[in-house]
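Final report, closing paragraph on structural work. Over the funding period we assembled a curated collection of sequence-structure pairs, and we close with a single example.
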Amino acid sequence: MFFQKEIRLPAFPRGVHQIGRQLLQQCPEIQEVRIGLLHLFIKHTSASLTLNENADPDVLVDLDRSLDAIAPEEFPYIHTCEGPDDMPAHVKSSLMGASLSVPITEGRANVGIWQGVCLCEHRNHASGRSIVVTLLGERS
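Its predicted structure, as stored:
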């Protein structure tokens, strides 16, 4: 089975956010896969995807703060025409990555007990984000 769909996430505030529920709501087809691979690709250069902590929300806050330390707004960037948070967002997006692959087993993400799919929103006032969801696998 091959399946592909583009989903739209609502606007999130700057930070790192769990999006597993939104993925399942907009892509219930994931639950039909017995064994396969879920590939996610975000179609933006100022946001990214990561697999990280899903239990303690402080981890996501600290991750965002760490990214701010690595790519601060106060750095003397050349590209400044889209506001002071834009170029640091591009740097963070490149560091974190635009795609993520997750194994699917019996209709569920086969990840560690403390892992979840996260959207890293690097802009202060971003609009919603588009993600291309591609499923490859065998149906149940």
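The chain has one domain: 2-139. The longest strand covers residues 129-139. We thank the funder for supporting this effort.
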